[in-house]
């Protein structure tokens, strides 16, 4: 049965396809839902992302939001597919979530990335972020790029530093501490 929202054909029109040595960065597809939902219920995956699992409905809304960014802003998130297996393994991209956060990130390109725990340590986050930054930088050259990372997520903080992100503030977001980082233009 085909999906009634026809994301399998519509999404690729909005989202550019990017490629790295090991990954395809592509539009989120309806067929990603089972794998993404499984990841969102893996404690090793969600421990730095709100520290609670997500239902299939919550994951679905997240995927729709990823595509909605492309339609509204001309940027958004890519689903990451491992070339060797063809499996969905995370996402990378840029957002404007209108977070209720002080200091505010509103109006910035907020970078974000997630990789399946089974693939940590392979350099996939580095490949995905590099490809995303290579795509966004010439299209939005004057925009400030920010990100937020759980202070205990040492690996993600190290990846952010690798790409020139530096801490500019600490805050509380959803009753938990968060590090706010920015990348110079």
What is the secondary structure topology, with strand pairs?
Layout: H1 7-14, E1 18-19, E2 23-26, H2 33-40, H3 43-46, H4 56-73, E3 77-82, E4 88-95, E5 109-115, H5 124-139, E6 145-149, H6 154-162, E7 166-173, E8 176-183
Could you explain the architecture of this structure?
Residues 23-185 form the N-acetyltransferase domain. It holds the Pfam family Acetyltransf_3. Keywords: Transferase. By secondary structure, this protein is α+β, with helices and mostly antiparallel strands. The chain has one domain (7-143): 3-Layer(aba) Sandwich (Aminopeptidase), CATH 3.40.630.30. It is 34% helix and 26% strand. It contains 6 helices and 8 strands; from the N terminus they run H-E-E-H-H-H-E-E-E-H-E-H-E-E. The chain has helices at residues 7-14, 33-40, 43-46, 56-73, 124-139, 154-162; strands spanning 18-19, 23-26, 77-82, 88-95, 109-115, 145-149, 166-173, 176-183. Strands 1-2-3-4-5-6-8-7 form an 8-stranded mixed sheet, sandwiched between helices. Helix 5 (124-139) links the parallel strand 5 and strand 6. Helix 2 packs across helix 4 (56-73). The longest helix is centred in the middle third of the chain and has 18 residues, at 56-73. The chain is globular, with a radius of gyration of 16 Å. The N and C termini lie far apart (46 Å).
């Amino acid at each position: 049965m085909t999906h009634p929202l026809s994301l399998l054909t519509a999404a690729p029109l909005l989202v550019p396809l990017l490629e790295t040595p090991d990954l395809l960065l592509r539009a989120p597809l309806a067929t990603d839902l089972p794998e993404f939902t499984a990841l969102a219920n893996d404690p090793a995956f969600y421990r730095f992302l709100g520290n609670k699992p997500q239902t299939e409905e919550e994951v679905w809304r997240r995927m729709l939001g990823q595509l909605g960014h492309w339609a509204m802003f001309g940027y958004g998130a890519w689903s990451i597919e491992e070339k060797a297996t063809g499996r969905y393994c995370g996402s990378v991209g840029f957002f404007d979530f209108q977070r209720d956060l002080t200091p505010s990130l509103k109006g910035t390109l907020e970078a974000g990335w997630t990789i399946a725990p089974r693939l940590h340590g392979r350099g996939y986050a580095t490949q995905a972020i590099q490809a995303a930054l290579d795509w966004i930088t010439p299209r939005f050259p004057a925009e400030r790029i920010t990100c937020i990372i759980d202070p205990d997520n040492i690996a993600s903080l190290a990846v952010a530093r690798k790409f020139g992100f530096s801490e500019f503030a600490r805050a509380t977001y959803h009753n938990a501490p968060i590090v706010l980082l920015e990348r110079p233009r």
